[in-house]
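User: Modeling request: complex.
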Amino acid sequence: MKAIGFKTSQEIENKESLIEFNIQKPKAKDFDIVIKVSAVSMNPVDTKVRANAAKDIILDEPKILGYDAVGIVDEIGEHITNFKIGDRVFYAGDVSKNGSNSQFQLIDSRIVALAPTSLKDDEAAALPLTSLTAWEAMFDRMNINKNDKKTILIIGGAGGVGSIATQIAKESTNLTVIATASREETISWCKKMGADYVVNHKDLVNSVKNTGFETVDYIFNVANTEIHWDAMAELIAPQGKICSIVDAEIPVDINKLKSKSVTFIWEFMFTRPMFNTNDIEKQGEILSEIATLVDGGKIKTTLSKTFQGFNVENIKDAHKLSESGKAIGKIAIQF
Amino acid sequence: MKAIGFKTSQEIENKESLIEFNIQKPKAKDFDIVIKVSAVSMNPVDTKVRANAAKDIILDEPKILGYDAVGIVDEIGEHITNFKIGDRVFYAGDVSKNGSNSQFQLIDSRIVALAPTSLKDDEAAALPLTSLTAWEAMFDRMNINKNDKKTILIIGGAGGVGSIATQIAKESTNLTVIATASREETISWCKKMGADYVVNHKDLVNSVKNTGFETVDYIFNVANTEIHWDAMAELIAPQGKICSIVDAEIPVDINKLKSKSVTFIWEFMFTRPMFNTNDIEKQGEILSEIATLVDGGKIKTTLSKTFQGFNVENIKDAHKLSESGKAIGKIAIQF
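Assistant: Request completed. Predicted assembly structure:
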């Protein structure tokens, strides 16, 4: 079967940055299923893995990227009872295994759910990784009570995770959502996602306070941890919680969070599959919940751009657009 | 009335390090009560505030230390319904206000509870700050479910907070407790407090793994944040929680906690009173619960040494013993 990946880390313009190759189609066993992939979507993790996974080395086997897919169940392992061949499913996957930029993909059925029936392949492929990240951050990490009338600041409101986090917060909680954006088109996008307030992250403390909130109960940082650290320390309420998904590039001063007894939490969507935690099936359940919200008209896809055709050129173009930092919402590739 | 405090930060041997002086007895109003103090106890915060609060300056008014007391209600504010004059109470207090090293102390009644009737003054004075810290850390910060059969590592098992945390964990939860200690007498003390395993913090990763646990679900660090950071990152389970009460003296690498989606939480016992949070009365409730556990024979005082008499010499001796790092459990001063 055809797959696209890399054997060495290169700038995207380099001929070797992404290559097409053939590998054996995988076989399903135990809790695994084989999916015939129909569409995938891009996430920052794709370009980060490409940039960091094979620096100064050449891998023996190409690394296959892609951590968001929609497809049809092609084969099931012997323990599978909740899926059958022909089901249309969506899932994110496991960064430590082969990704979805491949005609067929082997995946643990416990992190898979039936895809929303109301969305086309590319629209549905835009959702799994960002939805899982946002949902886990808010409900499994920050442990937000859906009835609490509290406030959340989402730093990076117009990106893939910020866009879906805003929608989930507005649809599934009583939170007031303050999202950050700085360009005209991203501000307008954040409002479309349902943000109650859109503020500029370039003067974060003052722009949040100008909304009338002196502090916020929760901060979900999907943009940059070190740049916003001091502002987050100032804005977070006593006993508040900050969740981030972005590595700090330089050390941050954790002591700044102490006097307010603040909680700092990492959300990494691949923790459950990578460590095969005993609650791994929670990811399948979250995706089912997302599909229900989508099909009930409560949540919209965050797709903004689709490339037609599974080929190196399109995957490269998607990487370029993602690396530009100018993308709004999500980028998909229809196979 | 007589009080003991300092106007300038000095080594404890210096004549000016702690001084006796007279100030006006406080008046109770609103939610405040005035307490005639009977006994106080020492905490590391006393020596830290003395060392840091008046460096290179001389305060106009002396700073009164002491954040653990037992005493008799002497006067009540007009909103007080749950205490009456003559009640014997215990409390920690608020580091931003005058402390308990004083004949009388003004205190917010919402952070006060009736003292355990089965304990003498010094025995009860040993408990509030450490109990509040341990309780808040386990139940309000790490949100430990009392029925979960999980594992907690308490780094610094023989100190004031570690001693009471071990007892509360054993009495009020189903946690397995692994406490750290390295000297013969501290190991024996930790076992007396109820620890299931006592391990050496000098080789933390291996000594924990030697108990048969590859990872732990919770870590409560009351000893040193930066020294144990890497070991904590290695030992914590995926999706586990680390709570610390000790400032990091050098930057730590928070990224080490990311792949496991770990939660890092500060517990600072003074957050609720200092910020007058809308759940400030939780501290009075926790102390009531502690008194009930003590009077029911479920929790023992962690007092190990009492100085008799409220005078500068005794307070200085208590500071010296605390600063030595060799103290086990708590040190009290009986007035």
